[in-house]
Amino acid sequence: MRLRVRFAETDQMGVAHHSAYVVWLEAGRVEWLRERGLSYRQIEENGISLAVSRLEVAYRAASYFDDELTLTATLLSVRSRRVVFGYEVHRGQELLATATTEHVPTDRTGRATTLPADWLTPLKRLLAESP
Fold it and tell me: Which residues of the chain are under the pLDDT cut of 50?
């Protein structure tokens, strides 16, 4: 997905704050799912959340106010109790950051649960089809 660094996401020097990347990763992940027919909103409405259990970001270069960025999300792993996504953030050809998020399916009480079959099956298929 494409995004543009907003003024509110920067410090006084116009550099994007590290916390903005976390929001961008979420947007990229939700869009990746949507493009493949999986609605994060729908799974939430059905009582399942994908809680972030681990987040790792490697910052390689700064991004600045009004930069146009490309965020690529990739499904790296899926099991009944864990989903892992990988990300790259680029400005043109320049790699600005790489990231990984791990998610645990939880029910409405916040307890870990298994991913419903109507999500697990298509995610496993998508993972098998990925290059």
Answer: none
Count of beta carbons in the 10 Å neighbourhood of residue 115: 22
Q: Interior CA angle at 35 toward 30 and 36, to 5°?
A: 100
pLDDT tens, residue by residue, 47-80: 999 999 999 999 999 999 999 999 999 999 999 9
Structure pTM?
0.94
Residue with tokens 């990925």: 130
Return the closest-CA partner of residue 91 out of 37, 26, 38, 16: 16
Long-range pairs for 75-79: beta carbons < 8 A, 24 or more residues apart = 75/32, 75/123, 75/126, 75/127, 75/130, 76/100, 77/127, 78/115, 78/120, 78/123, 78/124, 78/127
- Please say whether the structural domain 2-129 has been given the CATH code 3.10.129.10: yes
Q: What is the pLDDT of residue 130?
A: 77
Residue type, 5: V
Phi-psi region of 26 (alpha: psi -120 to 50; beta: other; left: phi over 0): alpha
